[in-house]
Amino acid sequence: MKGLFTALMCSFDEKGQINESGLREIIRYNIDVMQMDGLYVNGSTGENFLISTEQKKQIFEIVKDEVGDQVKLIAQVGALNIDEAVDLAKFATDLGYDAISAVTPFYYKFDFEEIKDYYNTILESVDNDLIIYSIPALTGVNMNLEQFGELFENDKVIGVKFTAPDFFLLERIRHYFPEKLVYSGFDEMMLSASVLNVDGAIGSTFNVNGHRAKQIFELAQSGRIDEAREIQKVTNDLIAEILENGLYQTIKEILKTKGVDAGLCRKPMKALSSEGITIAKHIGEKYL
Ligand code: MN9
Q1: Which of 48, 50, 186 best tests ligand 1's pocket when mutated (most atoms within 8 Å of CB)?
Q2: Active-site option among 56, 161, 180, 256
Q3: Confidence of residue 256 (pLDDT cuts 50, 70, 90)
Q4: Domains held by the chain: number
Q5: Among this protein's residues, is 156 annotated catalytic?
Q6: pLDDT tens per residue across span 49-93
Q7: pLDDT digits (tens, 9 = 90+) for 193-228
Q8: Which of 86, 195, 212, 262 counts the highest number of beta carbons within 10 A?
Q9: What are phi and psi of 36, to 5 degrees?
């Protein structure tokens, strides 16, 4: 389960329905061209919080069908409706997903006991390993070292997708829990996380920039930091331009220039203007 996982995108049509052939093309591109070690399915980048339970299941099915056992698969099942989270966890486990992952429950400012109960409820219902998805900037949920430690006491909690700029906490987690899997979640901070010996990374920009991401990770692992920094610099020039133009929309537009039918984003995410499309194409030509 170590290595680089693409935070998989999904192709949607103008009506917001899943474009199955487009989704399959995104998957193939990530495996065959980007050479990713695995896919993280139905995370933020997959627009998970904008789609129905049925669509989530459909995506889990299509991905497993396309991938088989070619690369590792992680199913993000977290949801505010705990019954839905359990249902999705069972569904993905039955399909053969290598692990599940669940975002910390958000919106209602749950206390830690409630967060722990949420994870235990999901874990008691399935025979699968779980990776915590921590992304405080979007969820408002900040867990400290002791709280991560408490969740890690359950052997089925095998790791964390750490999407935060808190390198003090990341280093402490790495130090105290060497047996757990720690994934870097912010692509623009990947080198800093890699230096702290994370086991892998999960990222949206790997859909198009997977080669550089892999170089950064491997160079950092072999201690070639100067070279890794150069590649992180170019990567961050790219990410800055992508963020400026609209994160997921721009990645999809770049995928289209590679012949991948990445489709549109779901509402309320807006479509790129014609100027935005031109900018996206230029970004792709310049960096990819
Ligand atoms: O899953 C992604 N997080 C979100 C990881 O999209 C919320 C990251 O890959 C970011 O998209 C990326 C750009 O900030 O680092």
Answers
A1: 186
A2: 161
A3: very high
A4: 1
A5: no
A6: 999 999 999 999 999 999 999 999 999 999 999 999 999 999 999
A7: 999 999 999 999 999 999 999 999 999 999 999 999
A8: 262
A9: -75, 155
The alpha carbon of 152 and the centre of ligand 1 are apart by a number of angstroms equal to 24
Answer yes or no: 161 catalytic: yes
Q: Residue 195: inside a domain, yes or no? A: yes
| 274 three-state secondary structure | helix
The CATH number given to whatever domain includes residue 175 is 3.20.20.70
Please tell me if the CB atom of residue 185 comes closer than 6 angstroms to any atom of ligand 1.
Answer: yes
Does residue 258 lie in a domain region? no
Which residue range is the domain that position 84 belongs to? 3-222
Helices (H), the chain: 20-28, 53-67, 82-95, 112-125, 136-139, 145-152, 167-176, 190-195, 206-221, 225-245, 247-257, 274-287
263 CA to centre of ligand 1 in angstroms: 19
Which pTM was predicted?
Answer: 0.98
Report how far ligand 1's centroid is from the alpha carbon of 173 (Å).
20
Residue pLDDT, tens place only, 156-188: 999 999 999 999 999 999 999 999 999 999 999
Rounded distance between C-alpha atoms, residue 222 and residue 99, angstroms: 28
In a domain? residue 242: no
